[in-house]
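**Backbone geometry record:**
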Amino acid sequence: MKLTNTLHGLALLTLIPALLCGGEFVSLGVKGGVPITDAVDAVRGTNASYFTDTKRYLVGPTFEVHLPARFSVEVDALYKRIGYQYQASDPFVYSKTVANTWEFPLLGKFEILPGPVRPFVDAGVSFRHLSGIRQVRQTISAGTFQQVEINNAVEFNKKNDVGFAFGAGIALKMGPVRVSPEFRYTRWGSENLRDPVGALLRTNRNQGDFMLGLTF
């Protein structure tokens, strides 16, 4: 509930300048890209090990309000698919876990130079929500094989998080279309994942992404 109320407030903050300035100062579009870093830090232990299973794509809509002096405010909604695998030897246990992540960055952006090619920097906060957690677990004990599927996993410490994000890129204006390749770094504030037994699995709180935005 708190995250939902926060996102509603962020949407209002970006809509107010748009209503004051007019529709020509608003850009809508889509972002796609590749996660540079893994979502989890996985470690191999003596009798049990975790393995990362990061999906190398991200995608989502983007919304930008253009302000005077080459400043703007940007809000994204970026979808990623994350996952990890677990294996233990005595008794044999294997599990595969996947989850959906939605990230909602709210960024202030400044274009350093005018013209058709505009290098820019941006910075702000990012909100993350995990959903759709699904785990398939296989066990072999006393010669008996068992497989179960559950809609949660003990490694998920929390489903919401807040972090600091900043990035740099270039905006290429080609008529009504703006193409914006960007590298973005996010430092998350806390742990979403944690190994409940040992120290073999943790959230990678340093996140890097390469993105390409198309806005109109």
